[in-house]
Task: inverse folding
């Protein structure tokens, strides 16, 4: 609950010079009024009015110095107005005449939950538990599960386990299964290793020979010998401030995979991209996702898609091979950034996004 409140508060408090510099264009055919529906997000509502919904802080006239969110609730009537030539969205009075701009004051009425900025349920697990290790060497140096005296292969909630490594008695730790090692598809550089969250253990006692006795307090799936153990991120240090802004100029990257393992993802699905802190990106950066243009083989005017061409034609008529123009299909906002990789949430999508799609500035 604390995490959700923190993310909600921080999300609505974010605005940067990048947002201020961009023009605020209203969407063609936008309404003048809108009744908030159950299940709405500020992003969806902003998309009713703005051509670029990621500029929502200006539409709501959010002050970056305000720590509390501008709560709105299902059933509230929103009305569009103009202030100094800029469009503003606020709550209308019951009579529908006076526009009351959203207030930073706390609200105490016993109503439904306030409307969040984004569907937090989609990114919560990535903020709280799932993780990317810098490299496979980091995984080798972490404490790991030895097993238990019942000789269970898969250990479940309530089991007493032993861990090789030093732990602090009374402290909770996350248990992670080492997953996919991500490598750059062109250079072969190791970008990081997936750490799949499987459970939480509570350290009970530090024993001789650098061994700790722990209790498996909760488990998402079975815990196995060799699973890694590391501290859970404190809620107050989670990267929960998402600043909707254009990303700095980067060299083109690509979508590595969809953590859901689906073949394609749409709006509010999560993707993993090969850009991170070393590329100067940060949480809140918005990037464009493009479908690569189809590669062609042109044999003296006889054109075919490269994947359908013969081996001979690929070998002798691909030296100057052309491809159709790439197409912008989605916008993604980064929300968890590592050194060489980042998780992003698809905010807009005209069609499904797949691994290998290009990520670049728009």
Result:
């Amino acid at each position: 609950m604390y995490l959700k409140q923190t993310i909600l508060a921080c999300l609505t408090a974010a605005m940067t010079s990048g947002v201020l510099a961009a023009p605020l264009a209203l969407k063609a055919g936008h309404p003048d009024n809108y009744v908030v529906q159950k299940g709405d997000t500020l992003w969806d509502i902003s998309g009713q009015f703005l051509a670029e919904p990621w500029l929502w802080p200006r539409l709501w006239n959010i002050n970056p110095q305000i720590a509390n969110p501008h709560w709105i609730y299902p059933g509230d009537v929103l009305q569009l107005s103009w202030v100094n030539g800029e469009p503003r969205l606020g709550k209308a009075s019951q009579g529908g005449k006076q526009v009351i701009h959203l207030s930073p004051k706390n609200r105490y009425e016993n109503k439904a939950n306030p409307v969040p900025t984004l569907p937090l349920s989609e990114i919560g697990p990535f903020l709280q538990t799932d993780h990317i290790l810098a490299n496979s060497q980091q995984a080798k140096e972490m404490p790991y599960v030895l097993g238990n005296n019942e000789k269970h292969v898969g250990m479940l909630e309530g089991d007493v386990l032993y861990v090789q490594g030093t732990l602090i008695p009374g402290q909770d730790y996350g248990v992670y299964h080492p997953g996919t090692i991500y490598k750059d598809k062109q250079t072969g550089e190791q970008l990081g290793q997936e750490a799949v969250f499987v459970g939480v253990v509570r350290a009970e006692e530090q024993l001789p020979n650098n061994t700790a006795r722990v209790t498996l307090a909760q488990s998402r799936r079975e815990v196995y010998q060799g699973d890694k153990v590391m501290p859970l991120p404190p809620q107050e240090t989670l990267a929960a401030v998402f600043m909707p802004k254009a990303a700095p100029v980067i060299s083109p990257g690509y979508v590595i995979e969809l953590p859901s393992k689906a073949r394609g993802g749409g709006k509010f699905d999560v993707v993993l991209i090969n850009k991170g802190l070393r590329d100067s990106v940060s949480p809140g950066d918005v990037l464009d996702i493009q479908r690569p243009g189809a590669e062609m083989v042109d044999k003296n005017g006889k054109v075919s898609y490269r994947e359908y061409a013969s081996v001979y034609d690929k070998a002798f008529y691909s030296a100057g091979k052309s491809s159709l123009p790439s197409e912008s299909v989605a916008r993604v906002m980064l929300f968890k950034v590592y050194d060489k990789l980042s998780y992003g949430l698809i905010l807009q999508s005209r069609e499904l996004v797949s691994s290998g799609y290009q990520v670049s500035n728009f």
